[in-house]
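G., the chain you wanted modeled:
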Amino acid sequence: MEKKKKLLDIIRDKIRLKHYSYSTEKTYTHWIKHYIFFHNKKHPVEMGKVEIESFLTFLATKKRVSPTTQNQVFSAILFLYREVLGVCIFLLYMKRSTQKQLLKLHGNTFFQ
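Predicted structure as tokens:
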């Protein structure tokens, strides 16, 4: 009797098949795991656009992640749906992070 693979193992296999870097594998699995736990371990097949938007909005507003991190999380979730589950996710509207990045030039601080 063949044991069914776990979702995260399938994700890792798909990432390796596409020759993504090990750091990308770790990052994607980290954020996908957080996405699933955020929604009380609900399987991603049972979730969709609304759950993705609420998770990304939560990260931007409550956790105050940077816009770069939010894009990284979005890419990980898109990979999950497109490449692993074979589901097409259409345009999403979520609260974007607006955290300003600080630039230090010659001892002065500027906002980017």
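The first strand starts at residue 102 and ends at 105.

Shout if anything looks off.
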